[in-house]
Fold:
Amino acid sequence: MFDKFSISRIFESDGLFISVIGYVIVFLALLVLYIFIANLQKILSLKLRKKLKSEGHKSADEKDLSISGEVSAAISMALHLHFAEVHDFENTVLTIKKVQRAYSPWSSKLHGLRQDPKK
Amino acid sequence: MAGLEQFLQFTGFANVTYGHILMIIVGLLFLYLAIAKDYEPLLLVPIGFGILVGNIPFVENIGLQLGIYEDGSVLNYLYFGVTKGIYPPLIFLGIGAMTDFSTLLSNPKLLLLGAAAQVGIFITFMAALALGFSENQAAAIGIIGGADGPTAIFLSSKLAPELIGAIAIAAYSYMALVPVIQPPIIKLLTTPAERKIKMKPPRSVTKQEKMIFPIVGLLLTTFISPGALPLLGMLFFGNLLKESGVTKRLADTASKPLIDIVTILLGLTVGASTQATTFLKAESISIFILGAISFMIATAGGVMFAKVMNLFLKGDNKLNPMIGAAGVSAVPDSARVVQSMGLKEDPSNYLLMHALAPNVAGVIGSAVAAGILMGFLFKVF
Structure:
């Protein structure tokens, strides 16, 4: 099978043609997808732009209405800290929870007292 | 006494060949790399153990129904999923349900890096033709450069089933060896200044965008390359299960138990298909060499294209050319390699999210390339 490396076999079997056309089609497929994705955000934000315009917001004319990943991360972190109550200041409201327990001689005050020595 | 004689003839010791011993050593090496070196253990442990299973010597073709190539054996039934291309689309379903396309949606020009890296497939296709492989065999070998095991298995099951064992082993081996193969090529083709380029953080992507992408992605790519339908159909279906938000149970099943089961079956049977008596041929060695070349060209193609793109990009839109190497579809290994290389150059430069975009684009690109090659070469009855 592997007698010798021969470039001519590539041309005999349309190898070059298939490779060039194939590679171009791969590029084309992903280019079409790129064009679609690049414009998807614009299409989806049309409604938002209209709303912002009607409300008189200046941001309606901005090219990119999306929030950067860094801003999203900061908002997410702030919300997480808020809901998980991980914050720098302690709550100032103190609550005392009264727990009622059934009687047990182990916790009885009477048994905990030192008995008077018997004379 | 005759029974004892027959028993002795049936033992592995009586049937062992140098080929079996060589393949058992290869299997042990795979297991060592997976367990001791932590090289893609989820792939290499099933494959490595499969190699051991497939290379236990026995008397072949006397109706024992033991080996993977003997009709009716358990291993043969499990291997059916490989030879008929059933497992790869199921793996793609799981990948789709696990993949977050956000980075790609936030910076869609990175899709082009996924296309550029497919150059390895087509150059290797031509090299294999020049070496004397048939067109179908050359296409199946070339797809190793896509660095996508399921795609390689899928295409070889359709075009060159006789080479499926060697191609699958080569594809999965190179996927596992991404951390060894890619860094020297990346370093060779980039300057220290280029490797330090910091990229603009990705924008946040809306839920609507994430939901629309798998639907439109399927329509656009498969209309161009219908041959990729089983792979891309499942990939985008899995992704819609994840992103729709209403099929969490299905997405969880696809991304966890299903993909795990299929990976076990695929890895074990692909490993077992390396039975020395069938597998050890000169053409298997050629496939391994061509596969390595293909993978290297793909890596170089991605890096070089990122450098070309940089000529047209300005300011903070410039790309770190290392992420071009992630255009091969070894997800997420290539992206991880780029991330660790980036951190070595500059400990504050995190490239993982940026590299994941060409990485998932590479999955789409290699599946499209497989579909195109099938469209060109499949023999119509």
